[in-house]
Structure formats: structure tokens, C-alpha cells
């Protein structure tokens, strides 16, 4: 019989989707940090299949696509990742598809279906589990975690739905991804209005989970939001109902309706869809990034300041970095469209402030064509200042805008846009590492960083595959999709019993019998439907991240407050919980992206490695600390966690062991 000192350490990961799988991979790769005499048991809790989880599960429509090309998706940290733990080499989605996956239709530039992505994620999960060290076991519980109990110095009890006995865990890691939410006041009002007048209302939700059958053929349906969620719903309500696309002689698409489609009236703040994905690669040399916006250099620049301003301090550096990526590609790939060599331009560019007249003069002299100059203001709000006498004129203008976007994003002559996007990726990746952000007023962090900058980044770089944008244009030309304009508003007309919508682009309005919120739910601890998070919030073991200024301004983010240094949950009194960790979009530590691009030193890999090593260090410290009198099962000494010097077996792989699935 094994002694208490040799009983397994237990780590529970709540959430077995891509983020939970990524944390599991780092735990298994770093497991040699533990004493060889102590086994490790890892318990994953998720009602959805491991690997894909809820959003990426295989059981969804084959019409749902990935939003990144197969070559730009990987679950394996490569040699560019700067982390303390050993690296694990593995294929990207495109490499897996060509070998183990047997998906010959998937190439480097393919936007694979989410079903294919789900199979890749499950393969990754099975592979890392099969390669785990011999003293580590992995078990999957196909259910939901509902509550966590336990003192900071004792094992935690993780209660599962429909289970009589809890899991006992030394450490719990929350990696649940996006959350559902109970409709807020405004959404509930619109839902109640629909019930009173026999209308249809759909609050923010995930496309794979939605029953769209209630939206009737030919019905006028309002849709708020023109990002990725809108594209998913558009596909399901059109092609998903039997409509077909045919190639025209001019290369455009023509949509042939099935007669089962509703008529979609769509709008948003910008009033236009996200920019289409670029179908080309860089022609010139990759820009050396970061160049002007690296976290250490920016923090050093503002080291002596108590407060900084986004627009006068941070944005000029961000804008200079993004434009640098743009012009690097323009000069090195298309030298016939500039007047001086790149080296000469770069030397002058480096010494100038972004927002000064000398910089404008340099760009105008070196880049003769105005269309070749980077203009972020024009990109940001394409309908700003434009007014149309009626809806028909607005439709024509937005269709022209979409045609121009499709052409630009598929024409290698505009590869400088990709240079700008790569620089945006670099800036976006540096932001979570930037301690200077804390020197911004809370108002600015809400409105400028999490608001404008996040929105612009997604608009420019997180759009749909070009084929989806071509389909949207075909639907607009067929009259299935109509555009409401910028700054869309919606009201409920009690007298007529209809929804009414309009915008700033035209005085015309549209009435409809249905309304869809084409956005994902916002993470909110107070209104989420996740029982585990609600119970932690009620008990005070978890708290909401709140931003506040000295003048009394306060903004409740709705996100779980964790330490940005080590991802430990912060309690209501501000103290970190030594045994509870969390990371993902429901926390205040923003993640870089859903999936990581190979060879980019991707932030999620570094985050996953940090949390895994902190967890293992904590466990190793518990092994060294003296046991409490009541024994291992009832508690630990609260010895401080620390690094394990000269840990035996570091970096070695040990094969064997078992994996079981419970429930």
C-alpha cells in the first residue's frame, strides 16, 4: 500500500478545449520538475469532447470554417517560443492535414472547416497524453464542474454535476474559454417585447448552439453586428437553407436562393463588414519586429512617469510600428512605386515622430501615389461623414466598398497591407507585456485600449476568408442582405408591434419581425451561466476586475480578476489564492488569439508554460514542506512556492502510463 507521502498530486483543469489542452501540454512537458517519487494525476472536466471543446467540437455544420489559414494554426511551441520549459515539436494544422490527418483538400492557404480543426485538436490531445511521463495519469470527466470548496492551505474539493463525490485537488486551473450570459436588461426587454407581439429575438450566442428554424422564409430580420458571428449566421441562414453560389463570367459569385431564406438587414457602428482576409503572402523580406514598440523599451521610456496618455504617448509609437511594417513591405516588394531606397527611407523614418509634419513630408516625397500611403483614419471609419438620400444609394455604396476590399485583399500589388497586419500582430502581442498600460487612466484603458484599439485590430485583421466576403457581396446583390448603415440603432414599436432600425448613413428606416444580436456574449461574472464561476464569486474566493480613477470613475469589466504575474485568482480582499489559477478570455489577462501562429514566439505558449511551471513549483514546495498533523488528505503546510533548484530529470520524456475517460 502506497504511503501518504507517495500519493499522487492532483491537478484539475476545468475546460478541455484548446486552452485547457495547451495547459495540459505544458504540464506534461514540464512534469520532470516534480520529484520522481511523487506521481501526478491530471483530471480534466468538460462536458464537450477534449481537444476541441465546445466551440470547436466536430458535431457542427460543415459550412462553419476556420478564420485563419491552416498554415497559421498550431498547438505546438516551436524554437521561437521563449519559455523555461522544454519545447515539444509538432505539426501545424496544414502539416497534420497532409500527413496524419489525411485531409488532402487542406493546403497551407486553406481555411479549413471547424470539423477538420476539431479532428486536429483531438489528435493533439491524444498525442500529448500518449507521450506523457510514466508517473503521470490523465483522466477526462465528461461533465460540468459546479463548485470549488477548500481553504488556501488544504486540498480543494471540486464538485461535478450529477456526481456524489467531489474531486480532491491540490491545484485547480480554470480554462473554460468563452462564457454564456443571462440576457441583460436591454436584451431582456427586447425578448419580452418579442413574446408580447409574436416576434422572434435571438440574444448573443454561439452559432453552433443556435436553433435558427424559428426565423421564417422571406421574413425581415434585423442583425446587429458585422463581424465573425454575423458571417456564421449569414451562412447558416442562406447556404445552410439550400441556397447555392455560381461562378459568373467576371469571376464574381451569383447567389441562387432556395426560397427558404429570410431577408437580413445588417448594421453596426462602422456599417461595413470586417476587412476580408488577405490571400497573398509577403513579397519582400519579413519586417524586423518589434521595431518601435517593444514592451521593455516602451516601459523604459515612461519609467519616470506616474501617468501617460494613450493618444499622445502610446498611440504614436503603435502607429509608427504599424506603418513601419506597411512601408517595409511596400519598399522591399514594390520598389517601382517609391522614389528612394528602403535603407534611406528607414534611416529618416526612424528619427522622426509619427505625428509630425517632417514625417508627412518624408512619406509624401518617397511615396508619390496617395493610394500607396498608409491612412489609418480612412480605414477606420469608411462611412464617416457620408450621407445618402435613401437606402438604395447606401446599398450601392457599401457593395462598391466590399468589391474594392475583395479586390485589394486578393491583389499582390497591395501586399503592404499584410506588412501592416504583421506589425499590428506584433503591437497586439506586446500590449499584455506592457506595464505602462497601468499608467493610463481607467477611462482610457476602457475606451481607447479595450475599446477603440481592440475594435480596430479585429476589424482590420480578424475578418472572414475572401470567399465568405465574395458570398456576402453575392447575397447583397441578390437582395438577401441589405445594409442599414453606420451607428445602427434599434427600437421597439409597441403600437405597431415591430422592431425598427436605422443608422447615421441614411434617413430611411426598416421594420422587421425579428432581431438577431450577431455577437458573442460578453464575459460577465455576475451574469454568466457557469455555476462554478458564480459560486466562486458569491463566496468571495473570486472577484470581478474593476478599473477605477481617482476622480470616482469606475468600470466593472465583468472579467475574473487574476494576477497578471502568475494567473492566480484574486479574492474579494485582493489576496491571491495559492491553489486556484485561471486564464482565458473570461479573465482580465487578455489572450493573444484563439490559436497561435507558428514561429512567432506566441504569447499563449508563454502563458501556458508560466502557469504550468508555477503549478508544478507549488506542488514540489508542498512535497518539501512538513505535513500538518491531520495528514495529507486534510491539509498542507502553507509553505511558499518557489523554483525547484536542480530538479532531477528536467526535460526528459518518459513514456507509458494510462489514460481513462470517466463518464
From TrEMBL:
Residues 632-663 are annotated as: Disordered. It holds the Pfam family NAD_binding_9. InterPro entries: FAD/NAD-bd_sf, HpyO/CreE_NAD-binding, L-asp_N-monooxygenase_NS-form. PANTHER family: BLR0577 PROTEIN. It comes from the Bacteria. Residues 12-178 form the FAD-dependent urate hydroxylase HpyO/Asp monooxygenase CreE-like FAD/NAD(P)-binding domain. This is FAD/NAD(P)-binding protein.
Amino acid at each position: 500500500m502506497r504511503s501518504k507521502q507517495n500519493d499522487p498530486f492532483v491537478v484539475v483543469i476545468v475546460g478541455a478545449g484548446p486552452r485547457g489542452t495547451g495547459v495540459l501540454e505544458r504540464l506534461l512537458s514540464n512534469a520532470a520538475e516534480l520529484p520522481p517519487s511523487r506521481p501526478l494525476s491530471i483530471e480534466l472536466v468538460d462536458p464537450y469532447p477534449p481537444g476541441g471543446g465546445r466551440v470547436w467540437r466536430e458535431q457542427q455544420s460543415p459550412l462553419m470554417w476556420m478564420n485563419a489559414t491552416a498554415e497559421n494554426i498550431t498547438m505546438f511551441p516551436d524554437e521561437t517560443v521563449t519559455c523555461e520549459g522544454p519545447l515539444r515539436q509538432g505539426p501545424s494544422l496544414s502539416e497534420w492535414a497532409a500527413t496524419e490527418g489525411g485531409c488532402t483538400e487542406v493546403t497551407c492557404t486553406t481555411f479549413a472547416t471547424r470539423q477538420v480543426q476539431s479532428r486536429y485538436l483531438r489528435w493533439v490531445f491524444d498525442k500529448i497524453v500518449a507521450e506523457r511521463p510514466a508517473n503521470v495519469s490523465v483522466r477526462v470527466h465528461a461533465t460540468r464542474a459546479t463548485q470549488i470548496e477548500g481553504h488556501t492551505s488544504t486540498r480543494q474539493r471540486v464538485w461535478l454535476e450529477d456526481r456524489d463525490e467531489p474531486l480532491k485537488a491540490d491545484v485547480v486551473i480554470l480554462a473554460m474559454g468563452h462564457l454564456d450570459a443571462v440576457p441583460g436588461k436591454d436584451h431582456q426587454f427586447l425578448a419580452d417585447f418579442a413574446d408580447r407581439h409574436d416576434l422572434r429575438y435571438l440574444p448573443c450566442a454561439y452559432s453552433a448552439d443556435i436553433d435558427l428554424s424559428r426565423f421564417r422564409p422571406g421574413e425581415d430580420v434585423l442583425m446587429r453586428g458585422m463581424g465573425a458571428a454575423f458571417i456564421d449566421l449569414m451562412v447558416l441562414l442562406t447556404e445552410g437553407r439550400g441556397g447555392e453560389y455560381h461562378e459568373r463570367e467576371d469571376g464574381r459569385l451569383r447567389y441562387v436562393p432556395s426560397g427558404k431564406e429570410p431577408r437580413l438587414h445588417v448594421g453596426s457602428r462602422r456599417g461595413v463588414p470586417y476587412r476580408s482576409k488577405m490571400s497573398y503572402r509577403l513579397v519582400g523580406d519579413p519586417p524586423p519586429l518589434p521595431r518601435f514598440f517593444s514592451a521593455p523599451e516602451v516601459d523604459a521610456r515612461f519609467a519616470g512617469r506616474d501617468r501617460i496618455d494613450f493618444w499622445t504617448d502610446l498611440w504614436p509609437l503603435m502607429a509608427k510600428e504599424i506603418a513601419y511594417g506597411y512601408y517595409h513591405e511596400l519598399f522591399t516588394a514594390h520598389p517601382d512605386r517609391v522614389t528612394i531606397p528602403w535603407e534611406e527611407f528607414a534611416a529618416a523614418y526612424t528619427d522622426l515622430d509619427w505625428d509630425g509634419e517632417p514625417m508627412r513630408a518624408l512619406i509624401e516625397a518617397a511615396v508619390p501615389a496617395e493610394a500607396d500611403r498608409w491612412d489609418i483614419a480612412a480605414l477606420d471609419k469608411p462611412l464617416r461623414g457620408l450621407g445618402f438620400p435613401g437606402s438604395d444609394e447606401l446599398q450601392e455604396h457599401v457593395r462598391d466598398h466590399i468589391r474594392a476590399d475583395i479586390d485589394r485583399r486578393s491583389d499582390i500589388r497591395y501586399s503592404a497591407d499584410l506588412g501592416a497586419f504583421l506589425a499590428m500582430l506584433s503591437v497586439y502581442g506586446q500590449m499584455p507585456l506592457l506595464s505602462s498600460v497601468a499608467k493610463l487612466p481607467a477611462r482610457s484603458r476602457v475606451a481607447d485600449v479595450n475599446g477603440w484599439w481592440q475594435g480596430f485590430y479585429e476589424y482590420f485583421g480578424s475578418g472572414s476568408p475572401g470567399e465568405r466576403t465574395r458570398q456576402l457581396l453575392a447575397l447583397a446583390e441578390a437582395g438577401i442582405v441589405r445594409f442599414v448603415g453606420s451607428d445602427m440603432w434599434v427600437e421597439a414599436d409597441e403600437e405597431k408591434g415591430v422592431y425598427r432600425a436605422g443608422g447615421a448613413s441614411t434617413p430611411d428606416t426598416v421594420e422587421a419581425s425579428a432581431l438577431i444580436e450577431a455577437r458573442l456574449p460578453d464575459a460577465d461574472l455576475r451574469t454568466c451561466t457557469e455555476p462554478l464561476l458564480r459560486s466562486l464569486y458569491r463566496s468571495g474566493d473570486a472577484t470581478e476586475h474593476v478599473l477605477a480613477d481617482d476622480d470616482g470613475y469606475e468600470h466593472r469589466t465583468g472579467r475574473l480578476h487574476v494576477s497578471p504575474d502568475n494567473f492566480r485568482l484574486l479574492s474579494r480582499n485582493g489576496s491571491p489564492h495559492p491553489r486556484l489559477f485561471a486564464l482565458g478570455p473570461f479573465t482580465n489577462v487578455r489572450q493573444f488569439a484563439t490559436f497561435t501562429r507558428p514561429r512567432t514566439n506566441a504569447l499563449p505558449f508563454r502563458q501556458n508554460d508560466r502557469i504550468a511551471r508555477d503549478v508544478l513549483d507549488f506542488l514540489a514546495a508542498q512535497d518539501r514542506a512538513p505535513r500538518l498533523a491531520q495528514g495529507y488528505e486534510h491539509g498542507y503546510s502553507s509553505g511558499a512556492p518557489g523554483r525547484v533548484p536542480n530538479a532531477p530529470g528536467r526535460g526528459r520524456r518518459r513514456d507509458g502510463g494510462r489514460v481513462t475517460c470517466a463518464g
